[in-house]
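1st attempt posting a full record on here, be nice pls
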Amino acid sequence: MEKVNQQSKKSRTYGQFCALARSLDVVGDRWTLLIVRELLPGPMRYTELKTSLAGIATNLLAERLRTMESNGIVERRLEASSLTYALTPWGMGLREPMEALGRWGAPLLATGRGEDTFQPRWLTLALPALLAGASVPSPVELGIETDGLLMVLRIDEDGPRAFIRRGEEPETVFAAVPDVVVALATGHVSIEEALAAGELRGDPDVLRSVFAAGRASASAPKTTPSA
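the predicted structure (as tokens):
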């Protein structure tokens, strides 16, 4: 049994003295980075993770969380008498490489949502990634409402970031289906087309300044990779 365990442990590492290879040893398993994506906006209970990650078996989710905790990526917290899972500071450091990977994969969204599942909280990672490099003369906030969730997209001297802020709605809110929000951020629809397809509450110039400040189409290829 000991030999089997040693072999199993060895098979989970590339055995290479390389930062990328060792990173993949830690986060390269299926579902691991998607769990990180879920936790970037904030802590979640196990049941919330299971619901958001449609398709993952409950025993596999438990195994991934245990492994991520032992690797120092995730920690358990007791919040309001509920056990939650949260990213450690080291785990939060995955935001930058995951945003870069999201930008790289943006052309793959050109075919639309189709039958794929979607959670609006995923946009808190996607929107800053797609608008990377955006800058405005003064800080600006825009509410994005889709599939019943309101998030805040803010651009300031530190660049774009998106987060969920309870109890305080920005003065300007754009509400639309996820496909329209993603297409607007990737540059596949114009700002005017997005306004026609969605609903705006507040100042249209705020929406224009946010999405004109940095469009993914400026850096992403126009063609979609073949299937």
